[in-house]
Amino acid sequence: MRRFFEWTVGHRKLMLVIFAVLFVVCLVLQNTVSVNYAMDEYLPAGTHSTVSLEVMREEFASGIPNARVMVRGVSIPEALEYKERLAAVDGVTSVMWLDDAADIAVPLSTMDKGTLESYYKDGDALFTVTIADAREIEAVEGIREVIGDSNAVTGAAVSIADAMSGSAAEIQIITVIAVLFVLAVLTVTTRSWAEPVLVLIGIGVAVIINNGTHAIFGEVSFATNAAGSVLQLAVSLDYSVFLIHRFEECRAGGKDAESAMTDALCKSASSILSSGLTTVIGFLALVLMQFGLGPDLGIALAKGIAISLITVFLFMPALILACYKLMDRTRHRSLLPSFKGFGRFIRRAAIPMVCIFVLLIVPSCLASNANDFLYGSSKMFSDDSRYTRDTEAIDDIFGRNDTFVLLVPKGDTAKQTELSTALKSLPYMNSIVSYVDMAGAEIPPEFLDEATLGQLESEHYSRMVLAVGVPVESEETFALVQQIRDTAQEFYPDEYYLVGNGVSTYDLKQTVTSDMFKVNTVAIAAVVVVLLLMMRSIALPVILVVCIETAIWINLAVPYFAGSQLFYIAYLIISSMQLGATVDYAILFTDRYRENRAELDKREAVVMTVSNTLASILTSGSVLTVAGFLLGIFSSNRLIAQLGVLIGRGAIFSLVIVLFVLPGILMLFDRFIIRKKHKESREATVK
Predict the structure, then answer these.
(1) 152 class by beta-carbon count within 10 Å (0-12 exposed, 13-18 middle, 19+ buried)
(2) Which end is more exposed in the chain, N or C (fewer Cβ atoms within 10 Å of the end residue's Cβ)?
(3) Is 264 helix (H, G, I), strand (E, B) or coil?
């Protein structure tokens, strides 16, 4: 490895040119990467709702209804005028209203009450609208122009449009504040005014290269777009800092800059690689999720950390050697204390903290698994957002409704009539719009106008639009989805297709809950194996993983005791992410403890280790904490915001356990940890 680092240092100008070219190319490429905001598109390809949606798109020009529009205080003729105006909006493919479900020429008092009040109630009209994919922003803007601010529009397409409109500004704010915070932290924790700038340049190059290489996938998820860069910044920050500190130590020994850099790379490679590999593995565990949002985020973050590692070993040495004289000229005294007093406090408090830690393990584990979970995107927006206000306004008048679409083989109208009758007997079924419900089984298709017929019949299938009185996500919704599937299965065994937001959410729940055990088990096992190879100890990997896993359980137990709902996807992602991102703190502390034990007894080794590592651990931990909370504060997407809060809070719990609990555990298990180390030290002394 030394030869490789010597070659790298010797060709540092080439490294600067290569990374400069990569930076420029990726800066351009990152603008070609699209962002996907639709959660249901990340369901596995073989999921029933995914297959159903593909079939419907092949058979029908208009897709699944994905918006509800409410217009207040209108008569029937006025509502019909609004329907025409909504249908003319660019991006809208179809609009359904009362006239599609019933004969509006008859008195309203003679209509079925459930059908009537699904579309028209006390002078307020509710339209079911279908908006084309990738046309959400212009369509929603057009709809809002038609209906004005006093009316309301909600639905999956609206949530996508609002998320797309707000995310860019939010990401810019988060990034700027995160960079300023990193700059402030590095200014305090480093000993040169130039060093923070060099570290940020290195991280910035790695982040841009990572974002640009997303182009090989074509698109990324909204989660990756919102959180990827700031998390890469927070997690990989300490790699460059550690290399610079090693370089300064080697130069202090009297070596020239090139030799000192080669030595610094050799001495820091093991620690940086062990930290980087455990982080990469923690993120890569998300690839095992069937739900595509996990692999999308996991690959992006793992790729980002890998690129950060490559940047640290190839680009940063060249950058540091080009600027080390500037670092010398801007040198200043340390702004941090020695922390030995804090280390002595930790030594006294260590064993009591271990006792508290042991008492928390089981309750936190049980509480973390007993949360009230959300699975879909129905509650993605904050309570004060326009989307939430419009949704509540519509729900207050028409109830929490959803629209499903059921496709059945075309032809047997008698069987379709029986199916429609059976479906109408199900709870929460408000109305059904279909060929047999509009025209009757005995009416030939040619008696319907072509536009209406095209929405209800294709070459192979008949389409039944089901208005259901349930929200997008609830236990009642999930039960109704299963009842509809069971009923359709009786009439058309394995020949029907059911789609809808509630249907996708039901399948999403089944998918993500089955991912949990697999993802966590592989993440933990992989991290343990890496630590076994790096530390050559059986006890240490177990100790470190138990410490961080308990921090994860405590983090996830907070929503349970607070009585708040938790997005299951955030719950699943944070379990691997916190392990990968914060186990580095435990590795750094343990490695330095073992070094100090070669010369000091275990109690003094704890004091010295706290003094040696506290600045580095707090630098990395505080940046990850702030990055997480910035996502929580500024993101209008509640899933991203909640994931950010979990990241920030998880970093705090990991820091507390590493600084207050791990020292006591290391002292208690000291003879299992340092026996081999002492033996090697004694043998070296004899020689």
Answers:
(1) buried
(2) C
(3) helix
**Cβ–Cβ under 8 Å, residues 170 and 392:** no
- Ramachandran sector of residue 375 (left: φ over 0; alpha: ψ -120 to 50; beta: rest): alpha
- Cα–Cα distance, 676 to 682 (Å, whole number): 10
Residue 678 has pLDDT above 50, yes or no: no
Name beta bridge partners: 567: 374
DSSP state letter for 151: S
Spatial distance between the Cα atoms of 384 and 166, rounded to a whole number of angstroms: 14
More confident residue, 614 or 24: 24
pLDDT band at 446; cut points 50, 70, 90: low
d(CA 273, CA 242): 12
- Longest Cα–Cα distance of the chain, Å, equals 105
Query: Helical H runs in 253-292?
Result: 257-284
**Residue range 475-502, pLDDT digits in tens:** 999 999 999 999 999 999 999 999 988 9
Mean pLDDT of 582-592: 88
660 band by pLDDT with thresholds 50, 70 and 90 = very high
- The two beta strands, 124-131 and 67-71, are antiparallel
Nearest to 29 by CA among 184, 169, 212: 212
Helix (H, G, I), strand (E, B) or coil at 464: strand
Segment 276-290 shows an average pLDDT of: 87
The answer to whether 664 and 594 are in contact (CB under 8 A) is: no
pLDDT digits (tens, 9 = 90+) for 520-566: 888 888 888 888 887 788 888 899 999 999 999 999 999 999 999 99
Strands (E), 454-573: 461-468, 497-500, 565-567
Task: Quickly list DSSP for 329-353.
Answer: HTB----S---HHHHHHHHHHHHHH
H-assigned helices in 369-474: 386-398, 413-424, 435-438, 450-456
* For the chain, percent of residues with pLDDT exceeding 90: 49
Backbone angles phi, psi at 57, to 5 degrees: -65, -35
**Three-state secondary structure call for residue 465:** strand
pLDDT (mean) for 624-629: 93
- Do the Cβ atoms of 398 and 152 come closer than 8 Å? no
* Per-residue pLDDT band at 17 (split at 50, 70, 90): very high
CA distance 329 to 244: 16
Question: What HEC string does 604-624 produce?
Answer: HHHHHHHHHHHHHHHHHHHHH
All CATH 3.30.70.100 domain ranges in the chain, comma separated:
387-505
Residue holding tokens 């929490």? 400
Tokens 């995914």 -> residue: 50
Contact 559, 369 (CB under 8 A): no
Q: How many CA atoms lie within 13 A of 576 on its CB side?
A: 32
Q: What SS3 class is residue 449?
A: coil
Please state the rounded mean pLDDT for residues 338-349. 89
Question: Does the domain made of 1-32+190-334 have the CATH classification 1.20.1640.10?
Answer: yes
Q: Match 């991006």 to its residue by tokens.
A: 91
Is it true that domain 387-505 has CATH number 3.20.20.70? no
Report the SS3 class of residue 376. coil
Q: What are the start and end residues of each CATH 1.20.1640.10 domain in the chain?
A: 1-32+190-334
pLDDT(80) > 70 = yes
Burial class (CB in 10 A: 0-12, 13-18, 19+), 543: buried
Question: Which residues, including other chains, have CB under 8 Å from residue 33's CB and lie 6 or more apart?
Answer: 211, 214, 215, 217, 218, 219, 220
At the top level of CATH, the class of 52-159 is alpha beta
What share of the chain has pLDDT > 70, as a percent? 96
- At residue 565, the 3 state secondary structure works out as strand
What letter represents residue 428's amino acid?
Y
Provide the 3-class DSSP secondary structure of residue 99. Answer: helix
